[in-house]
Amino acid sequence: MHMCMVVLHVPFYVEIRGNYTSNGFLRVSCNGGLNQMRAAICDMVTVARFLNLTLVVPELDKTSFWADPSNFEDIFDVKHFIYSLRDEVRIVKRVPKKFSSKHGYATLEMPPVSWSNEIYYLEQILPLFGKHKVLHFNKTDTRLANNGLPLYLQKLRCRVNYQALKFTPQIENLGHKLIQMLHEKGPFVALHLRYEMDMLAFSGCTYGCTDKEAEELKQLRYAFPWWREKEIISDERRSQGLCPLTPEEAALVLRALGFGRETQIYIAAGEIYGGERRLAQLRALFPRIVKKETLLTWDDLQQFQNHSSQMAALDFMVSAASNAFVPTYDGNMAKLVEGHRRYSGFKKTILLDRKKVVELVDMHQNGTLSWIEFADAVRRVHEKRIAQPTRRRVILDKPKEEDYFYANPHECLCEETNCDDLLGPRNSSQVSS
């Protein structure tokens, strides 16, 4: 079968499999925001390929906080997705009618166990297809292990992420327009300012908020039953480094890291909680702040209104293309953009140590540290927190705490035989227990 050639930044090989007999149909419902769903799609393609299943085009979450009604084909180029993976896995748009309940077939619904390796899917999931021709995974986030998978499966996860998952032409065209507008005005920093209502409510972080705002965020947290943690002490969470930086904290850190008033800063985020009032200090230090809403016209953005995942796709494209990327929280977008930037030649990504940052900010603001001492300390803390070539950190039996595959897919960044040339031999067995 003829294959289209794709030019990649690094050597990249996958096992070509040709035709296979399908063991059944796998339906998947992704949960979460755009980037959580993106990682899940990569994982589910990999599971379908490993078990010789026919994958149904994934269903996207419409019940998350922002209630985005977008379907897969509204965000991703579905034809490209199916075609580019045709030598790996068979993908269809819907389950054939003959496998419906009318014909006596019952779809089995279940969430796979989180962080599972290929043995789980082979021994626990594949046998289910003997009785059920259609299996529906109704949760797909983090259902595949970070580490220990066969190399060809890890590389397939990357092939899906970096080749098969292209945004729709409408999103791609507008994203490239944004990037061009920014580059024409010089280098720019993409600041992923995760100071948005959903994140603050979910994490219980209310530092800098009024009492009324703190109560509003608490009520929102209680309104979502699947946000399990309800009673949260904000100050404790912040001191542990578990809160997104506030706009004010982000402003001080960027200044300390050496970014000047002339720096063009693109805010990659939804609506900042507190609006312009909360951006005042950041804007005072960095007057050249821009957002997609200020760069593009209403006509440009009209088709994306009320579609948070499509808007997030624009921010993703800009963040991946920026001269420097600074996330203020290590959520799914931050991790996937970090991985894309590693894959694109290790573009500058500054991974903030939030626990140390808030400690230094508080010392500076209470007069314990002068500005010079504060800036020097911030720089020293982050000297080695630039995303450099390294192998993922493995923590046995604690997959949530180890490095995330999509933030650092090191298997896809070099050939296994000479990985040490890039990643360094000292990192070859970075396992913690």
UniProtKB/TrEMBL annotation:
Q: Cellular location of this protein?
A: Membrane
Which interval of the chain is the signal sequence?
none
Organism listed in the record: Glycine max (Soybean)
Q: Which UniProt keywords apply?
A: Carbohydrate metabolism, Fucose metabolism, Glycoprotein, Glycosyltransferase, Membrane, Signal-anchor, Transferase, Transmembrane, Transmembrane helix
Pathway this chain belongs to: Glycan metabolism
Instruction: Give the domain of life.
Output: Eukaryota
A single Gene Ontology MF term assigned here is: glycosyltransferase activity
The way this protein sits in the membrane is described as: Single-pass type II membrane protein
For the keyword Nucleotide-binding, the answer is no
As for family, the record states: Belongs to the glycosyltransferase GT106 family.
Per the annotation, which location comes first and is thus the protein's main one? membrane
Specify whether Protein transport is a keyword of the entry.
Answer: no
Please name the GO terms of the biological process aspect recorded for this protein, alphabetically: fucose metabolic process
Q: What is the protein name given in its UniProt record? A: O-fucosyltransferase family protein
- Look up the record and report any one GO term of the cellular component aspect: membrane
